[in-house]
Amino acid sequence: MRALRLLLALASTHAWKRHTSAAAIHRRKRRFVRGGAWGFGKNKDSAAEADNATTTSEGGMSQSQIDEALSVVPVFCLADPEGRPVLMTAPEDKDDATKKPLQAFFTDVNVAQAHAARIKELSGDDKLDLKLAVVELGRVLSAGEPEDRKVSLMADPRELHVARQLVLKGAGFRDTNSTGTSDKVVDFSSEASVKKECKAHCPDGVDLDQGVPLFTLKDLNATVQGDDVIQPWFLSFADLVRAYVNSTGSSDEEEAASGLERLLMEGGVVVGTLDSVLAAARGGHTRRAFMIPP
After folding, report:
1. How far apart are CA 240 and CA 226, in angstroms?
2. Residues 6+ apart with CB under 8 A from 226
3. Which of 68, 155, 219, 290 has the fewest Cβ atoms nearer than 10 Å?
């Protein structure tokens, strides 16, 4: 059970909660994957297809394919009772007309709710009633920057920490409290230490200080609408763990967990960002991408 405990600890650094409206989100996910199936190392015609996450596809993804992939990903912003977006201004900038207020879109509903609660607490107004508005990620990315505000896509900090841990594990780092021969040592429980070390080891084009992390496995694929094989990218590492366990078809949780732990140590887990994955997909440097919301 040691392997299973290690993986669950990594995938569950904090409590993973579901929003009450998650059923609607899952209905949209099923619409996209209906008729398809997860596979691990399946549907390969040659050894070159083993590196699914880095396999080049001819021509890259079209804009319509990218729009479809992003349409199943909801993001959340704060709004007042009348539905107007909440714009945030730093206290030091409130009298500076040159500083634009910020409109934040959150990839995780619980993080958005936490920000709403924090704003209410800081305002001192117990009657302040902030709502959550749901928008398709594609609409946010295609809208561009408004003249009157800055727009920012806010990643789940828990997923950022897990992504950095995975990057360092792939680079050969071990935890300060573990035994091993590697001279690369870091305190995996320290967010500051992990963030500092990760800067020098992220793959080219992957900026976890600015981007939204995505996770996949090199050999995990999905068939969608017949024979179209795509590369699924997860916004939640815990969801990736579940997808892997389901794809193995194994009834032995310990065996499945050991297999995933081996992939972690051998670099089979791929960490990217939304920007890096979309850039690679447009350029034909990766399989057609499919986003799995949390």
Report:
1. 23
2. 35
3. 68
Residues 169-201 as b/e (b if ≥16 CB within 10 A, e otherwise) read bbbebbeeeeeeeeeeebebeebebbeebbeee
The whole-angstrom separation of Cα 224 and Cα 221 is 10
Overall residue count recorded for the chain in this entry: 294
**What is the Cα–Cα distance from 88 to 166, expressed in whole angstroms?**
32
CA distance 261 to 133: 38
Residues 70-106: tens digit of each pLDDT: 999 999 999 988 888 888 887 777 777 778 888 999 9
Confidence (pLDDT) at 252: 63
**DSSP 8-state assignment for residue 59:** T
| Residue 204 near residue 193 (C-beta atoms within 8 A) | no
CA distances for 134 relative to 75, 189, 213, 274, 281, angstroms = 6, 33, 20, 19, 26
Q: Is the pLDDT of residue 57 over 60?
A: no
Tokens 């008729």, located at residue: 35
Cα–Cα dist 61/95, whole Å: 45
Q: Are strands 150-154 and 102-106 parallel, antiparallel or unpaired?
A: parallel
Rounded Cα gap, residues 264 and 258, in angstroms: 10
Our CA angle for 122, 128, 158, nearest 5°, is: 55
Candidates 184, 161, 162, 181; CA nearest to 172 is: 184
Unique residue bearing structure tokens 């990315």: 141
Residue that the structure tokens 């302040």 belong to: 128
